[in-house]
Amino acid sequence: MANNSLIIGGSSGIGAALVASLVEHGHRVTHLSREPEKGPDVVAARGVRWDALSEPFPRDCLPERLDGLVYCPGSIRLKPFARLREQELRDDFELNLMGAVRALQASHEALKRSDQASVVLFSTVAVGTGMPFHASVAAAKGAVEGLMRSLAAEWAPAIRVNVIAPTITDTPLASRLLSTEDKQQAAAERHPLKRIGSAKELAEVARWLLTDASLVTGQVVRVDAGLSSLRML
């Protein structure tokens, strides 16, 4: 029986790479985004419009049984704390946390009908590693990590819930920070592995958590080229 997977934010970046990978491995995939027509052109994937900031969750897109849900939307708002406006903080919480909350609440019953349900959310290396100018996104993604731990406990043993915490990744979201070769090299040099990740690499970690990681729940999986844990002396 093919797995039913729901990918929110599946039209670009990590989400799009994950949609393509899941379809390649035999999943039936529905992906939600503001512009689903820009998502991967694969027969076994259905695109549905949803703006997580302003629209009710489209419950009619859910299959009766949902085996996997991944919430990919994120933001990179780098700004001195003194210049952050309250509305900017609210916007980051709305996209990163509340969008995930709406998707999870709407999908819970369908997830419970699976005998192997898994949820994957996205955080950032900036939550566990203090970085200047990251206050807004680190606060929002820190809330996502707290949500993950609570749900992993509440929904066990039926549904596994985990978070991926990447460093900067070569995706459209980070294009402003990686727009030149010099910027790409500088970003790579900040990491012990001297490189940055790709959307496909992050997607494969998400697919592993969805499918094969049957003993993993309540975890923050750090995919950050060693940035959060290694100090090269």
Automatic annotation (TrEMBL):
<dbReference type="InterPro" id="IPR036291">
    <property type="entry name" value="NAD(P)-bd_dom_sf"/>
</dbReference>
<dbReference type="Pfam" id="PF13561">
    <property type="entry name" value="adh_short_C2"/>
</dbReference>
<protein>
    <submittedName>
        <fullName>Oxidoreductase</fullName>
    </submittedName>
</protein>
<feature type="domain" description="Ketoreductase">
    <location>
        <begin position="3"/>
        <end position="171"/>
    </location>
</feature>
<dbReference type="InterPro" id="IPR051122">
    <property type="entry name" value="SDR_DHRS6-like"/>
</dbReference>
<dbReference type="GO" id="GO:0016491">
    <property type="term" value="F:oxidoreductase activity"/>
</dbReference>
<dbReference type="InterPro" id="IPR057326">
    <property type="entry name" value="KR_dom"/>
</dbReference>
<keyword id="KW-0560">Oxidoreductase</keyword>
<dbReference type="InterPro" id="IPR002347">
    <property type="entry name" value="SDR_fam"/>
</dbReference>
<comment type="similarity">
    <text>Belongs to the short-chain dehydrogenases/reductases (SDR) family.</text>
</comment>
